[in-house]
Write a structure and sequence with these properties.
Length: about 160
Amino acid sequence: MGYIAFIEVHVTLLGEGHEDAVDGTSMLATAYWLESQWEEAEQFQTLVMGARKTKLGEDLPHTLTSMTNLASVYSSQGRWPEAEQLDLQVIGTRKTKLGEDHLDTLTSMVNFAFTWKSPGHDAEAINLLRDCLAKEKRILRQHHPNTSSNSETLLEWEIEA
């Protein structure tokens, strides 16, 4: 039995709103995203986001992650306004619930910097990544994997600019 068929059976047996079925659908959406099958990734990630909003609410971590994942699908499709809208919604919720310096908030802001960079908002993306990196260095320290990775990205972006 293929993965898609497995998920369909899983969802049928458990019901679309069951968390295990939603998690399986999320994995399927990710698999399609990794294979650059954008329409399928969008379809399944939209289902996941809708189920999580309905069952968990709009401001819980799993829901926010599914929104971020859908924003990544939109970015991959070159649908910048939709990606930006979701990214900004996630950032706003995380700032309110967790604070501006929380790692999840900073991660969302870094994701948004990547979304901004793609359609050519280089200066804005660089400034946002620079601000996030300064906070990461203060909170996580210089040698944390996030800090190191974002430092390398910032350097690449500054060289390109």
